[in-house]
């Protein structure tokens, strides 16, 4: 085999190694971007969950406040009825 064959083969092997490194680096970049996208999607999902839970909590608080107000009025009415005129 000629010397030219070994030189070309050596250059091809070096180019292949370089391409494998580029491929690996690009794969890591793609994976990193995908993780960023998925994190943002999860953040958006969690934010919407928190908003829903906050609305549910607020509606329960409003309902409880109404119950407390109704009961306090119900308790104060009998006292007024029993007062001598």
Task: Please characterize this protein's 3D structure.
With 85 residues, the chain is mainly α. Helices cover 94% and strands 0% of the residues. The longest helix has 80 residues, at 3-82. The radius of gyration is 37 Å and the shape is rod-shaped. The N and C termini lie far apart (126 Å). The model has no long low-confidence stretch (mean pLDDT 91).
Give the helices and strands, then pairings.
Elements: H1 3-82
* Assembly form of the protein: single chain
Portion in beta strands: under 5%
Radius of gyration: 37 Å
Q: What is the strand tally?
A: 0
Descriptive keywords:
85 residues; mainly alpha; 1 helix; 0% strand; rod-shaped
Short description:
By secondary structure, this protein is mainly α. It is built from one helix and no strands.
